[in-house]
């Protein structure tokens, strides 16, 4: 019995963390050598690897809510292109918001269809509006190669949200959030050591992180305040970026990440306390 439990835990670890991070490391390294602007494909490869091994019932073309995470990933890549091509800041935000609204609609409409199209559209617009605020805050300011805090904030947010989701909501979504954290970390690590700008990967990672958090409320009945609290933790990086000067050193990155880690950890702890099930986990 204990051997079977150990094997199950090992498989879960491989699917949630090891495979996504290895895929992200490899693809990010290859793209950094080939074309640095294409490095977000490393995050995409890492997350999709995790999605395929964790959600074994993935369908294409998409039919269920989880299947549309692939479409959300594609929309996130389109958002990266839009932010690079559009010169006016307001147009960039409008384009990303529109893509976010479409992403949320596709992710949520399969489970909200019994409430009608208006409910799905309302959820999509509200979720997109909330996410674009977070996106604008964490990407505002310096966008040079030395500032990796925005991407690190995604790693921290996903990593701290994963256990909350796994215990209080859905193990599947919790594992996928773990895959987001692992893929983001692998992508960030290569960008850091190759001195490549990692901020271009924030857009696509926000699409996936926000989509999973939104689904956790609808699919797993996680309280909406828990979802909002977990989703707001990345904005601490916006403050850290202004307080702590980044110089592309590990020491600088760690110092800048301390506030984000403390706040995200505290928020996750409070949320976990609130959603902890009354019955035994075993």
From TrEMBL:
Keyword Endoplasmic reticulum part of the UniProt annotation: no
TM stretches of this protein? 12-32, 39-58, 64-81, 93-112, 118-137, 173-193, 200-218, 224-241, 253-276
Record carries keyword DNA damage: no
- What keywords appear on the UniProt entry? Membrane, Transmembrane, Transmembrane helix
Q: What is this protein called?
A: Uncharacterized protein
Q: Which organism is it from?
A: Marinomonas mediterranea (strain ATCC 700492 / JCM 21426 / NBRC 103028 / MMB-1)
